[in-house]
Fold these 3 entries.
Entry 1:
Amino acid sequence: MDHFLYRDGKLFAEDVPVSEIAAAVGTPFYCYSTATFERHFRLFDEALEGTDHLVCYAMKASSNQAILKTLAALGAGMDVVSGGEYARAKAAGVPGERIVFSGVGKTRDEIHAALTGGLRQFNVESEPEMAVINEVALELGVVAPITVRVNPDVDAKTHAKIATGKSENKFGIPISRAREVYAHAASLPGLKVIGIDVHIGSQLTQLEPFRLAYRKVAELTETLRADGHDIQRLDLGGGLGIPYERSNEAPPLPVEYGAMVKEELGHLGCEIEIEPGRLIAGNAGIMVSKVIYVKEGEDREFMIVDGAMNDLIRPAMYEAHHDIIPVVEPTPGEEPAAYDIVGPVCETGDTFAKSRTMAKVEAGDLIAFRSAGAYGAVMSSEYNTRPLIPEVLVNGDQFAVIRRRPTFDEMINRDTIPEWL
Ligand code: LLP
């Protein structure tokens, strides 16, 4: 459920007409709903009620300061995967003890920054990384709390580019080697082993792969405890999917996920940590774009819009589906049309949808790409020297630009000319 609904024939973001925001900021832009972010965070928090837990928002999904502050105010922790994300989380006022540092290749500088600024734990991805964390901690005279990310070799049954839990993927250490790696970790004086981490992929639409992975983690917890390790915390990653195609998708709900977590892991008495990104942010955002032209092709109609693959890359990169709706509600009984919906960027990959049936549009009409709140703005680029599009946050009947559109001069002036030119 989200807060982008038609009222009297007009699309609203909470209590603000989307057309009003478009008139104020210009198109294209991202528009987020505070209430949806809050609702989705709470769904996870409530799903784990009764167990000691922390929901650490995977901020890679959408990392504007205003969004981080909104979630942090509800008590969210943050899952960060780079020095930049760590700095963003701190700048938004998230205390170090609520920041988990994940990521497959943490550099010495990033490790140093997190140990200096404070963190909840590092999720260690390899033995070489473990050695560097130990070294930096010893240099600083501190002890780094760590979990080791295990790769359970489970098929997440999701898009190949976002599956992470098979042995062929670059993530974690093979679960079969966990005892050896934990024994090594325990021997390093700069580290304190506190738990186990696992994340098997993103946009999972079934509970079974999670269940298989968590069962392996439960077994491993008991084995490692028997080996003498103090396993107190289980970080279960993120990955729960959202319904991108609302007419025919119904992935499991957070409450069902939470029940499964308690069933598989509840008996261990561990603190549970989860790192959802997409489910919190995805349906909390839309991308609003304007139709520039409707062009008759030989055998199809092209809807050319002012948003493009540089603004929302998911369709081009993962063949992802986004529901696309007009900002003015179609009248019932109106004859629809089929469009290839494309952006102005100079490559065929800049296609959002092929032969998409929707209400007829004309140049100047506004459309909204739904489910664009996660991995939308954060993956955008300035390809074709198109400015990064603004982000707008709605809260009830108010809205604010939370990242403005840069000017052409700002973009150009980031380049520097060598003295020989
Ligand atoms: N934890 C770790 C260690 C992760 O790598 C990820 C996502 C998450 C948590 C959050 O997963 P989520 O709950 O959002 O599924 N750009 C792709 C998605 C990449 C996901 C990367 N890792 C997309 O647009 O579909």
Entry 2:
Amino acid sequence: MGEEKKILYSGMQATNTLTLGNYLGALKNWVHLSEDYTCFFGVMDLHSLTVRQNPTEFRQNAKKLYALYVAAGLSPEENVLYFQSHVSAHAELAWILNCFTYMGELGRMTQFKDKSAKHADNVNAGLFTYPVLMAADILLYQADAVPVGADQKQHLEICRDIAERFNGIYGDVFTIPEPYIGKAGARIQSLSDPEKKMSKSDENPNGAVMLLDDRDTVLRKFKRAVTDSESAVRFDPEKKPGVSNLINIYSSVTGKTKEDVEAEFDGKGYGEFKAAVGEAVADELAPLQKKYEKLMAEKSWLEERIRENDQKAAYCANKTLRKVKKKVGLTEP
Ligand code: TRP
């Protein structure tokens, strides 16, 4: 009925290649969300600078991430897929919002506490104000909804607090974003330590399946997946975290319910089950990898899309930024 679509914003840091967890937990759902929302998805390269990067690898990884967005099925014609650092409004709004954010609230961020413990030799100011840049990302596009995992919920809350504070002083400048709740993305755990989230920084290289792992590697990692001493394919995250994680993965890839999966493997051993999950994942990743290779081989097409999308993003972001500058009383150039 010609009703305008709501705006949805999200993005991933531009570091390293993605895991199956990033894909099933976020990317795959973004593809569905892009049918119902006007979507902006950023390659969050400015955020990645809070940790020291190797410039050459970093640049490559950022471009790879963009190609993975597209290969996973996000159309750069129907969504705005762009690089955060190509739109200077992000850094500008982040500065202004810094002046509306308190040290105390940033100090309470659990991710800041975790990351400063992990990178004790580099507790930089960017790490501290990370959530303010993230708030700028979201608010620049007047996003209504932000799909975020549990680890980012606190960041969305501070974004809302900052936006409400600003609106309280200057009137309705920012849309207050809601966390996107809906068909939540599957939370995928490590294959070698199912109590932990699947992560590219897993010490055990068999713990995380990478999106660009070839078929044999995928099968091998699933074959080695940690299970338990029982031998029943039954969903019970408390008592059977490994098997439950595999059920989650299988059901998320095939679209089957957990009950269907339990029934399918009733009376069958873990060996057969793990092989089936590996096959299903490899089948799911194959077309994505093929598309990725194709995109990387004909770079000019991708580069043209990047240019267009950077411009689309900048157009929207600058509209908000101009309004903000005017409200706070900065002079016009
Ligand atoms: N902090 C997010 C993460 O690490 C990435 C991110 C940056 C983001 N800006 C954002 C996510 C804005 C959603 C909206 O996952």
Entry 3:
Amino acid sequence: MKIGIVCYPTFGGSGVVATELGIELSKKGYEIHFITYSQPVRLDALSSNLHYHEVNVPDYPLFKYEPYELALSSKLYDVISKHKIDVLHVHYAIPHAYAAFMAKKILNENGYKIPIITTLHGTDITLVGNHPFYKPAVTFSINKSDIVTCVSKSLMEDTREFFGIEREIKVIPNFIDINKYESKHNMCEKNFISEGDEKIIVHVSNFRPLKRIIDVIKIFEKVNLEISSKLIMVGDGPDKKKAKDYLRKNNLKNSVIFLGKTNEVDEILCSSDLFLLPSEKESFGLSALEAMALKVPVVSTNTGGLKELNINGNSGYTSEIGDIDSMASNAIKILSDKSLKKKYRSQAFENAKKYDIKKIIPLYEKIYDEALNIY
Ligand code: GMT
């Protein structure tokens, strides 16, 4: 089967899920065509089953905003008709589902029928897509997709509630390759950053306001009063300066390390004692799943899909958004008791196993088969 995949090519979760999905499908014999504005970051090698087509948007002085959807629709038309693609799978509704619908219409005019699968990832529904500027077009393109999937039960409920959508939405969670992570368990060099008995607490995100990174620091501050620890901040984004200002004002600079966008995330995670994710919104929480796969317990909020992933009292703890005291005391509970920490570590890993790539890919294969039968 030939599958076209449209996604954001960046480090963000939706791009990572789409890229890993395409790579895995290509290994299983599917011919995969990525169509996006630059080569996806996790797509390091192309092969006879793995192709990449770049969408170019030429500069023109008249345009205040470059019409990316238009360029994407045209590119989709070209790639789909040239390579005889069977199914088009778009990740993140904005503007991908809309551009896919337009491409489908153009193809139809030329006698070519193609089913469209749209996967909703989170902020396309809970934040951006919900804005009145976009809502009618997002609602329309979700309704016009042949199959719609989303990454958690919570995101499905939000999609129904925010957009009044009644059609079927299938839940297919994020996934990880558990074998890859398991093979790293023994390689983790504890204390490569910490001194003595210091605990390592880690946060990974794009530092957008909805990640609440000041909460990350405040939780750490409280923990550090009772348990000597270091906070590792992985990633980059708009709230980094705010975080650095807070650290300066509160004399915490020496306890918090910013590592930026590193490729060593797994190595950092597996040397860590605890993962913090106090997000305001999180449709699934792929970064928390990656931590769990490396046996790192998670202290998070109970927002969105996080409560489905991080089982309260099992893989870690969940609290209300902004409840810094509760998250700090949960972190202290896990970190202060060696045998409890060991128990949480193994429970986190057991929970992560539910999301193994081998279990999730067949769910996508099933919908591709369904899609093929539509036309
Ligand atoms: O979390 C982010 O800021 C990145 C964002 C994205 O759109 O790439 O991630 C979303 O999709 C991921 C993959 O499905 C989910 O694991 C994340 O929870 C989700 N982020 C939010 O809902 C905020």
